[in-house]
Amino acid sequence: MKRYIIKRAISFIPVLIGVSILCFLLIAFSGKDPAEVIARHGDMNATPELIEQVRVEMGLDGSLPERYLKWISGFFTGDFGLSITSYRLISEDIAEYFPITAGLVGMSLLWTLVLSIPFALLCARFKNSIFDHLTRGITIFGMCIPTFWLGFMLLIVLAVQMNWFTVLPEPGIKGYILPSLALSIPTICGIIRLFRSSLLSELSCDYVRYAKARGLSSTRILLCHVFRNALPPIVTVFCQYLGTLIVGSAVMEAVFSIEGIGSYLISAVLSADSTSAATCIVIIAVVFIAANFVGDMINRFLCPWIAGEHNDT
Questions:
Q1: For 160, which DSSP code?
Q2: Alpha helices in 167-217 (DSSP H)
């Protein structure tokens, strides 16, 4: 198992290097000089000498390899440079905005776990029933709903008409309920359909027929045997959704006026702040890769017999 973990961790290094190189090229060839933007922010008639001075102070006067090594070293030292968007250190911005997005995504994942698994189990247990057909129709509709439209509808109905929530973001957990629910509904619908399909596939296996021959009830077979075997594809997709939710949170943050890493990334892109944008992209890539790694480890723990390399356990 240790050998497998080390091998997987090493395989992620080329991916992270590739992402960082692409992001650095985005910085270098964005077509906008960060030094000029910063210099003209304080003085629209900034002289070339002042712009060059700012460029030297920001370390943009070196060659591309030197600048890349300096930028990538910031991920080990915590110094990512200066943000053109906020005119603060990028590390300070990320430390302020990332926990907000993490809370939003965390609650979205909680909604996904609480709602998708029970509904999928019920659909598999009562296959082709009215409940199953109704749930399948709702999930198809839910997967097609744009999240920004759903967010606006939740605000109009629950905040404006019913006055259960406020239009402006509230402090604490209550402020995350509506945006996390709107963000998670398409994910919930997708997980329900996938988990239902996985459960039904397992229910057609020989060990299920053997369990029925032993006199076990359908509910016990579903919960005690089929459930665990049907989990691996759900765990994989669930962990992959983590990176998707972080990116998709930008839309919900804009709809609900939440200042998180998603809205910060959009502001950086609109302001041509390529350094901040590239740093956010690399951090999201790290989270995405880490989530996939955790999902792989969970699958090997739940069902070690499906792993391709038994010698590593």
A1: I
A2: 174-203, 206-213
Angle CA 97–236–1, to nearest 5: 105
What beta strand segments (E) does 66-184 contain?
Answer: none
Tell me the backbone φ, ψ of residue 130, rounded to 5 degrees. Answer: -60, -40
φ/ψ bin of 62: left (φ > 0), alpha (ψ from -120 to 50), beta (otherwise): beta
Kindly indicate whether the domain formed by 90-312 is annotated with CATH number 3.20.20.60: no
d(CA 23, CA 75): 13
Residue identified by tokens 């509506």 is 178
Say which residues have a Cβ less than 8 Å from residue 55's Cβ, sequence separation at least 6.
33, 35, 61
H-state helical runs in the chain: 2-28, 34-42, 48-57, 64-77, 90-125, 130-144, 147-154, 174-203, 206-213, 218-221, 227-229, 231-255, 261-270, 274-302
Residue with structure tokens 């600048």? Answer: 67
Contact, 187 vs 241, CB < 8 A?
yes
Burial class (CB in 10 A: 0-12, 13-18, 19+), 75: middle
Q: pLDDT per residue over 57-75, tens digit each?
A: 766 677 778 778 877 887 7
Q: Give pTM, 2 decimals.
A: 0.79
